[in-house]
Amino acid sequence: MSDLFIGVKPVEERHRIDAGRLEDFLKRHLENFRGPLTIEQFKGGQSNPTYRITAGGKRYALRRKPPGKLLPSAHAVDREFKVIRALSKVGFPVAKPYVLCEDDAVIGTAFYLMDCIEGRVLWEPALPGLPKDERTKIWDELNRVMALLHGVDYKAVGLEDFGRAGSYIERQVGRWTKQYLASETEKIEAMDKLIAWLPKNIPANDETTIVHGDYRLDNTVFHPTEPRLVAVLDWELSTLGDPLADFAYHCMSWHIPSTMFRGLGGLPYAELGIPTEREYVDVYIKRTGRKDVDPSVWDYYMAYNMFRLAAICQGIAKRIVDGTAASANAREAGARARPLGELGWAQVEKILKRSS
Length: 356
Known about the structure:
Blueprint: E1 8-9, H1 19-29, E2 37-42, E3 50-55, E4 58-64, H2 77-88, E5 97-101, E6 111-115, H3 132-149, H4 168-183, H5 189-197, E7 209-211, E8 220-222, E9 229-232, E10 239-241, H6 243-250, H7 269-272, H8 277-288, H9 295-322, H10 330-334, H11 337-355
Antiparallel strand pairs: 1-2, 2-3, 3-4, 4-6, 5-6, 7-10, 8-9
Helix pairs in contact: 3-8, 4-9, 5-11, 6-9, 9-11
């Protein structure tokens, strides 16, 4: 399965780049850049097409907005560039960014160039084929790096204007409700229920940190032979926000059945060397010094994140209709909106049952 998403392929016709214009731009804006260049397209990614650029004996990665009709505020490559530039200066594991181009005349849409990080992109959270002890170390490393991110002083790294402090969940529910309704292709009852319930039941939490917004195993690169994370990828949804909401998104895998799009639910964790969700949360709480989370608050975070992910998947489904989907497996991803919405409402029903 992972072969469908990992590695490169020839550039799709709809995502073609004028190599000459790109080369001219990079020669003007990137010190010591030497052509000629070759362009290949990475297989993965649902949103922003990503390319491997080879030139002068060096490999780069290029992320661009997709061509065509786009949803408002989506595909913000300028924000991706800003956050990885800030984090790279304090040694957080990201690809080194080089240049941002917001002039559509160069290759058709805005883009940025960064280092192409060599290593392993691990697709399946159960980590099949790896030794038990390595699975344990990889999951601990994912936990460590997320705790590290949530400990970065966003003011000190120049990201004070990267988002707004406070009211994160309220703003996110509003944003993803609008995005969902703008991309709706069919009625999903669970999503309508979540749209009504979520804004009225937001838990209190005023803590603000940098949040990744899509921190999961396949958005990271691990060292080729060591259980060491060398780069966190795909910062399109990053902003300033609630770190526990961000961490809960990362923990959704435990709430999704292993039979349903790469979930961890129901697996023999001890046998595999993978922590239970409770063990994983405890490690994060200890690393960050935060207080433990009330079960109903955690369930809310899960419901919110499943709603949010369902809205993202619905956006992918709409891009299929509009012809702007970036990935070959977009149809499969778009079909996840309904089951994710239903999983989200099931989390709400747990809260309602607990309080009745």
